[in-house]
Design a protein that fits this description.
149 residues; six-stranded antiparallel barrel; 36% helix; globular
Length: 149
């Protein structure tokens, strides 16, 4: 499901505004990719979590930004008010499952949005998560600038 344009625009503005960024930027970042057809920079808000020094992003396979990142893996992420270049790797299926589970554990709102149950210990249901991955893409971004943010 693609959010309405106005919502993406609002989130983008909030993530570029210092005070508001501190509130919404804890779990949301901006990713900038290069359009594979247009060659133009395209920026969209994404939920994220950190796993083993990398940034994990997810989206429905119908979204276009991940296809652009697959065509040209050089991306920019705006995290915590700071922009960093990075390299995207697209993960699907079994390979994506541990990263997707980490995202769902860290961001229960994402688990709820995907219809994945989370137990009392905070662990998402792995079978439900695996089923969701048939239509969900996981994007692993390794930042070029590894200084903490």
């Amino acid at each position: 499901m693609t959010p309405p344009r106005w919502l993406n625009g609002l989130m983008s503005t909030m993530l570029r505004t210092p005070l508001l960024q501190r509130i919404v930027g804890r779990s949301t970042a901006l990713i900038t990719v290069t359009g594979r057809k247009s060659g133009r920079a395209i920026t969209t808000p994404v939920s994220y979590t950190r796993v083993d020094g990398s940034i994990v992003l997810t989206c429905h396979e119908s979204r276009q930004w991940w296809r652009n990142a697959q065509a040209d893996p050089r991306v920019r992420l705006r995290l915590a008010g700071r922009e960093s270049p990075g390299r995207a790797t697209i993960l699907r299926g079994r390979e994506a499952l541990p990263y997707f589970l980490a995202m769902l554990e860290d961001q229960r709102v994402v688990a709820k949005a995907h219809g994945v149950d989370v137990d009392d210990a905070g662990q998402p249901d792995p079978q439900q998560a695996a089923a969701v991955l048939t239509t969900t893409v996981v994007v692993l971004v390794t930042l070029d600038d590894t200084s903490p943010s």
